Amino acid sequence: MLYSVAAFATAILAWISYLFGLVFYRLYLSPLSKFPGPKFAAASKWYEFYFDVVLRGQFTFQIQRMHRKYGPIVRINPFELHVEDSDYWEELYTGSKEYERYDWMLGRFGANTTTSSTAKSDLHAIRRAPLNPMFSKRSITKFEPVIKEKVELLSKAIAAYREDGRLLILSDAFNAFAGDVIATYCFGFSYNHMESPDFIDNFHPAYEAVRKFAHLALHFPVAYLDLRSKIANIIDDKGVTHNQSRHPTIFSELLESDLPQQEKTVGRLGAEAQQMIGAGLETVAWALTTTVYHIIDKPSILKRLRAELEEAMPDSTVILDSLYLEKLPYLNACVKEGIRLSSGVSVRLPRVSQEKIMKYKDWVIPIGTPVSMTTIDVLYDQHIFPDSRSFVPERWLGNPKTKEGESLNRYFVPFGKGPRACIGINLANVELHLALAIIFRRFTFELYETDSSDIEMAHDFFVPSPKLDSMGLRVKVNAITVP
Questions:
Q1: Which 8-state DSSP code applies to residue 407?
Q2: Helix (H) or strand (E) holding 460
């Protein structure tokens, strides 16, 4: 008995000694010990766990507070640095193909075989190559008639709320719309979410649950197994192998591509589909929700936009082509400003080089160190975008520049930049231009018990999320200008 107690005490003492030595090394001997930041963050990943898991998606905000205290480069955990400097974005994300994604951050959704979760640049290029033509402007233009059909379904659904006076949750409608569009493009068939009562059948609740769980899964990889089953229950594999469409689909093209056979398994393409649906749904729906709220909330902006749309679309029953709509200055400015405020993803995006020394100003970053930035830090940079949290479409009119004379588009990074930029940028732009043009040409709305807290980011669950008790973007449909 005494031997057992002594052995246990020895084990505990050894464990404590190991922890003490590990913390001492991380704080004072690690190659990253010279970089500023909180000691707790440098000592353990439990610091990040607390803000993201216990406080639910708050580490992004805590990193911003670190920068305010310690400067533009900070150590945010034992292994990783973060930079807050809008001028460094191009260097980090477009400067070298040797900057690869950080393995630890890629598995948060339980799939590491998708294009977006591929760390190595060479393999990423192989997986992305057959996707690029499908998301080109030319291919999306060919798919546009299908998007117009979805916009008409959205318009019809909104009109029904005016006829019977029901309260409309536009954010749910946008989730249904974006989900139906991306599913049709991926698989060749629609889940018809816009035709469900009050849009209750849509992908968003399931994906939202997965995103909220992903921070925990990042720290405890065993949870990935449960994540895979959660996502797999959202979308079945039939969409990968059965094309019922009159147009080419993403997965029919992948199956016929020159990808190696091991890249065409149902399992890998199924994971690809699950992430593609999530990306095409969440970012577009949130951008629509953000943009529509601000336009309704600001009568002067609404008046100017409606005047432009009425002049361009005298017959409100006709949906103009996106190539024409994108040339309408104020509509295009509203789209860009809405995308800026919705920000795409809200999580940091680490890059790591195993061969090339990375530098930030006078700081030499050790090889193999993940370095990240966050899109919202650039998109909400007060120096680049004055009054950055306000919806100001006018900032995009003409030839917009910063105070230093730089093109404002240089800092428009919601889709990322470089070879890993969001592949769906052309599809998203068409969806946003078509949907916003029809919504504000045909309808007028009144906000119902909805304010800015319902569309402002309060939590980082990979994409921006509002306060947890938000009821969504709720409106009354006051008038219809289409027969």
A1: B
A2: strand 459-461
Contacts by 283-286, CB closer than 8 A, 24 or more apart: 283/342, 283/344, 283/345, 283/422, 283/424, 283/428, 283/463, 284/174, 284/178, 284/181, 284/182, 284/428, 284/431, 284/432, 285/171, 285/174, 285/175, 285/177, 285/178, 285/179, 285/204, 286/342, 286/463, 286/464
What does the alpha-carbon distance between residue 44 and residue 75 come to, in Å, rounded to a whole number? 11
pLDDT tens across 260-302, in order?
888 888 778 777 877 888 888 899 999 999 999 999 999 999 9
Residues 6 or more apart whose CB falls under 8 angstroms from that of 457 comprise 343, 346, 376, 464, 465, 466
Average pLDDT, rounded, for the chain: 88
Q: How many CA atoms lie within 13 A of 167 on its CB side?
A: 9
Q: Name the nearest CA neighbour of 226 among 329, 110, 308.
A: 110
Please check if 334 is assigned to a binding site.
no
Q: What is the pTM of this model?
A: 0.92
pLDDT given for residue 309 in this prediction: 98
CA 18 vs CA 11, 29, 154: distances in Å: 10, 15, 60
pLDDT at 240 over 50: no
- Using CA atoms in the order 9, 11, 12, 18, what is the torsion angle rounded to 10 degrees? 140
So what's the pLDDT on residue 224?
47
Token pair of 427 as six digits: 């599809």
CA of 408: how far to CAs of 336, 378, 381, in Å?
Answer: 11, 11, 12
Read off the amino acid at residue 321.
D
Please report which confidence band the pLDDT of residue 60 belongs to, taking 50, 70 and 90 as the band edges: very high
Averaged over 386-397, what is the pLDDT?
A: 98
Classify the phi-psi angles of 213: left when phi > 0, otherwise alpha if psi is within -120 to 50, otherwise beta: alpha
Q: State percent of the chain over pLDDT 70.
A: 90
